[in-house]
Every structure is written in C-alpha cells, then in structure tokens.
Design goal:
66% helix; 0% strand; 256 residues; mainly alpha
Length: 256
C-alpha cells in the first residue's frame, strides 16, 4: 500500500508512455466507460430530466470525492499543506470537476450550458488524459495512485459526456456556445495567472510536458507568446468544429 500511494517515492520503474501496460490499463477504462455510458444513457433516454440527472449527481460526487481524496494524499505524502496549489482544477480535463456538478445540481440556462460544456469537452479530456498523458505515464508506474486516480477521474468525464449524448440531455443551443467560450477563457486566464505565480504549467500553456501539445511547442520554437495563443486557439477551433459536426449530424431533413 505504501508503494501504491507513493509514500517515500515510487520504487518501481515506470513501464513507460505507450507501453503495453499503459495501453492495456487505459483501454480497459475506456471500454468500461463506453459500456456504462451506453447502458445508462439508453436506459434513461425516455425518462424525465430528474431521472436523467440522478446519474450526473452520482458522477459529480464520485469525481469530486476522488479528487479531494487525491489532494489529501498529495499533501500528506509531500508533508506540505500547500501542495494542493499544484493540483488546482486548471487543466482542460479538470474543468469537469466543476462543470459536472453544475450540470447535476443547477437548473435553467446554467444547467444547459454546463451540460453542453461537459458534452463538448468530456470525451476529449478522457482520451487526452489517458492515452496521451505522457506527463503521467512517463513518470509513474501504471498501477500507481497518481495514474489510477487520474484514469478514474478522466473516465468519469468521458462517461458523463457520452451519457449526456445517449440520454439526449445536450441542448447545444447556439446561444450557449458563448457561455462555453466564456468558461474556457475564464479558466485559461486563471491558468495563466496561476502559472505566473506558482511557476507551473496549468492548461499546458507553458509547454507540452510530454503531451501532444509538444508538437505546437516545437512548431513555434517555444515562443511564450505564440505558444499559449496557439493552444487557446486550438481550443476555440475545437469548440466551433464540434458544434458544426453536431449540427451536421443532427440536422433534420427538410420535408418536401
């Protein structure tokens, strides 16, 4: 248990980024994630909003409780009560720690906007935070506390996104795209400030850190103005592309 939680540092040599152990572990999580989303989504598709929301309430409790437990372990392990400052929900995927509870516990336009945000970014965060998390799987053993909790929380984000799709909870109203932009810009601004104050790399706005963002970082030669601008620009392009594809796929044929 001491080794699993990393007290005193991990003694095992990490299996490595894209090792068969890494791919097997995250693929198992993805299979479970998709199966649960399809099962619960189709089961609740024709039920009322209250019944559909119960699944999101459970998801919100599970993801946030796991994150709080992780912060406690991180602080105890490092013997630093301020270690949580380096685990703030200021990565693209960790925004779901706030967005899923908003989708579960609020009403009206805020709820609809939160549902759309989780729908748009939840699955992307799940894939990026498991298969392409080189900063984790290149540093820690696959079956370690850091990677297990990370895989667990990212899988819940992906589950929530797919569940919203299969249960038909996403409104994807055009007016809500601006709310999605606002949420994203707000977190990017907070990440930039935190990076400056803490000398950290929230939202990967200072470097790729072993993720696919390294491609952008190398493309702009590490320029600290162009690089974050390109990363944020990619977020915006993704939102527009997602909405565009969604409307193409759901557009009803005009009656003759």
């Amino acid at each position: 248990m001491k080794e699993f939680f990393g007290f005193g540092g991990y003694q095992r040599i990490p299996e490595g980024y894209f090792s068969w152990q890494h791919l097997t572990f995250v693929s198992s999580l993805m299979v479970i994630m998709v199966l649960c989303a399809v099962l619960f989504g189709l089961k609740n598709k024709n039920k009322d909003e209250k019944a559909k929301t119960r699944v999101l309430i459970v998801s919100a409790i599970l993801i946030d409780s796991a994150e709080i437990f992780k912060l406690i372990i991180v602080c105890v392990r490092s013997q630093d009560p301020l270690a949580w400052l380096y685990d703030l929900p200021l990565f693209l995927c960790s925004i779901q720690l706030i967005a899923i509870p908003l989708a579960a516990f609020t009403k009206g336009r805020i709820k609809n906007a939160a549902l759309d945000f989780v729908f748009v970014f939840g699955l992307l965060g799940a894939v990026m935070g498991t298969y392409f998390a080189g900063q984790n799987y290149g540093c820690y053993p696959v079956l370690s506390f850091d990677n297990v909790v990370s895989g667990y929380t990212h899988s819940i984000s992906g589950f929530a996104s797919l569940y919203i799709a299969f249960s038909r909870m996403a409104s994807m109203k055009k007016r809500n795209i601006w709310v999605t932009f606002t949420i994203l810009f707000g977190f990017c601004g907070a990440a930039l400030i935190a990076n400056k104050l803490l000398d950290y790399n929230y939202m990967f706005l200072r470097g790729g850190d072993g993720t696919p963002y390294d491609i952008v970082y190398r493309f702009v030669n590490g320029n600290q103005i162009l690089y974050p601008a390109c990363v944020i620009g990619l977020f915006l392009v993704y939102i527009v592309a997602f909405y565009f594809v969604f409307y193409l796929c759901t557009k009803k044929k005009k009656q003759p």
